[in-house]
């Protein structure tokens, strides 16, 4: 089983190193090959997603991704900015279905910024459409306004769009996921204002006819943002577009205690997947050895379950994470009085130790750097 390991920038390199360490103690024939991506690739090859990295990603069974981006690249032409690497991978590989589970582990109830009773036992799944919407709609750009409030002024524009097949396939993913869980889907839109999202809502209703056993609720995105902090446990599966999903998933991360706890899986229709934490490269803490690696380690568990047909290994990683939290290990983002503050590496070591204690075997692993 071949894994493309793309650490990227900032804390990306630190957290991916811990996830790789965890994968290495599993009894699985994993072949990992590393390549530069984002700002790191721009420095080496003049492009955030060099051909070699893209080809490696395409040929792998799964991709383990860290994060890309740094403020110092914000003035580059857009196609050269690090963020284009993750957008390019999603587009080139057709990774349209993004799973972002927000689970509040028992030990982290107090780490959330919400009252404990609101988040205790929380287990919701945000399904974000990942290859359409205003992120990829054309045309976009800058021009001189010919009409509007200020004709003759400079203006910028983007295009929000969704086609029927794009909405249908993500709706099917959401209803099928709900069947494995609480059988409730909340479709989040802005149908009261945007044509794109009235269409989204209409198509989701049509697809729902095939899933009479699943409850469907519609909610405007502004209300959803409010309900997520008012009564997060009233949700089961949330399905939404690319931009709303980006925003709501960062909001949901704080229900779990920290954005450093939110893993993700981005899948195409062949179940090939890219696995990454939902957060970014965190330039403010990069290089300090304090980033929380658990979202990345939990993303590696999702990779084993969804793309590598190793669900037992995924279960073992998730149990190991629970046991290190139960033992009191905390990176600063989830630390509270009475627990043990550790750095990125110590947290990874603790997960490895928990796995070994659970009877880990020998791993056949090769790492090559390209
Ligand atoms: N998929 C990706 O690669 C991805 C995702 C989001 C943002 N970005 C990029 O990352 C850069 C920084 O963006 P940002 O600051 O808006 O978002 P961010 O997610 O990188 O950081 C937001 C805040 O959360 C904290 N944080 C994030 N991950 C953490 C972790 N694992 N442990 C502890 N604290 C953590 C950071 O320190 C920061 O205070 C930008 O260039 C942005 O474009 C990349
Ligand atoms: C870095 C950026 C392109 C990306 C997004 O907006 O999708 C990030 O915020 C995410 O959530 O993965
Ligand atoms: Mg985001």
TrEMBL record:
It catalyses: (2R,3S)-3-isopropylmalate + NAD(+) = 4-methyl-2-oxopentanoate + CO2 + NADH. Substrate binds at residues 90, 100, 128, 222. GO terms for biological process: L-leucine biosynthetic process. Binds 1 Mg(2+) or Mn(2+) ion per subunit. It is an enzyme of class 1 (oxidoreductase). PROSITE patterns: IDH_IMDH. NAD(+) binds at residues 280-292. One of its GO terms (cellular component) is cytosol. GO terms for molecular function: 3-isopropylmalate dehydrogenase activity; magnesium ion binding; NAD binding. InterPro entries: IsoCit/isopropylmalate_DH_CS, IsoPropMal-DH-like_dom, Isopropylmalate_DH. Its cofactor is Mn(2+); Mg(2+). The record marks 135, 190 as: Important for catalysis. Keywords: Amino-acid biosynthesis, Branched-chain amino acid biosynthesis, Cytoplasm, Leucine biosynthesis, Magnesium, Manganese, Metal-binding, NAD, Oxidoreductase. Pathway: Amino-acid biosynthesis; L-leucine biosynthesis; L-leucine from 3-methyl-2-oxobutanoate: step 3/4. Its main location: cytoplasm. Its EC number is 1.1.1.85. Mg(2+) binds at residues 222, 246, 250. Residues 2-351 form the Isopropylmalate dehydrogenase-like domain. Homodimer. HAMAP family: LeuB_type1 (MF_01033). Catalyzes the oxidation of 3-carboxy-2-hydroxy-4-methylpentanoate (3-isopropylmalate) to 3-carboxy-4-methyl-2-oxopentanoate. The product decarboxylates to 4-methyl-2 oxopentanoate. Belongs to the isocitrate and isopropylmalate dehydrogenases family. LeuB type 1 subfamily. This is 3-isopropylmalate dehydrogenase. The lineage of its organism: Bacteria, Pseudomonadati, Pseudomonadota, Betaproteobacteria, Burkholderiales.
């Amino acid at each position: 089983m071949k894994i493309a390991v793309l650490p990227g920038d900032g804390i990306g390199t630190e957290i991916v190193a811990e996830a790789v360490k965890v994968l290495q103690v599993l009894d699985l024939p994993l072949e990992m090959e590393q390549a530069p991506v984002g700002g790191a690739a721009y420095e080496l090859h003049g492009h955030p997603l060099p051909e070699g990295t893209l080809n490696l990603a395409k040929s792998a069974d799964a991709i383990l991704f860290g994060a890309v981006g740094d403020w110092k690249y914000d003035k580059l032409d857009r196609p050269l900015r690090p963020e284009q690497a993750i957008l390019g991978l999603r587009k080139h590989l057709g990774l349209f279905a993004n799973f972002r589970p927000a689970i509040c582990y028992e030990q982290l109830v107090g780490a959330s910024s919400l009252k404990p009773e609101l988040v205790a036992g929380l287990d919701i799944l945000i399904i974000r459409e990942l290859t359409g919407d205003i992120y990829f709609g054309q045309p976009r750009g800058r021009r001189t306004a010919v009409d509007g409030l200020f004709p003759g002024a400079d203006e910028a524009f983007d295009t929000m769009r969704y086609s029927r097949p794009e909405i249908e396939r993500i709706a099917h993913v959401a209803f099928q996921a709900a069947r494995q869980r609480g059988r409730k889907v909340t479709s989040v839109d802005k149908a009261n204002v945007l044509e794109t999202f009235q269409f989204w809502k209409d198509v989701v209703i049509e697809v729902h006819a095939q899933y009479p056993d699943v409850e469907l609720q519609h909610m405007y995105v502004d209300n959803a943002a409010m309900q997520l902090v008012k009564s997060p446990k009233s949700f089961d599966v949330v399905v939404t577009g690319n931009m709303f999903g980006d925003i709501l998933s960062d909001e949901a991360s704080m229900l779990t205690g920290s954005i450093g706890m939110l893993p993700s899986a981005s899948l195409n229709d062949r179940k090939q997947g890219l696995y990454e934490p939902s957060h970014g490269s965190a330039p403010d803490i990069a290089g300090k050895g304090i980033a929380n690696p658990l979202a990345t380690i939990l993303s590696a568990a999702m990779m084993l379950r969804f793309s590598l047909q190793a669900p037992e290994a995924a279960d073992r990683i998730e149990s190991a994470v629970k046991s290190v939290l139960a033992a009191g290990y905390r990176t600063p983002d989830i630390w509270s009085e009475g627990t043990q503050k550790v750095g990125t590496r110590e947290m990874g070591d603790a997960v490895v130790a928990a796995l070994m204690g659970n009877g880990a075997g020998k791993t056949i692993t090769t790492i090559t750097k390209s």
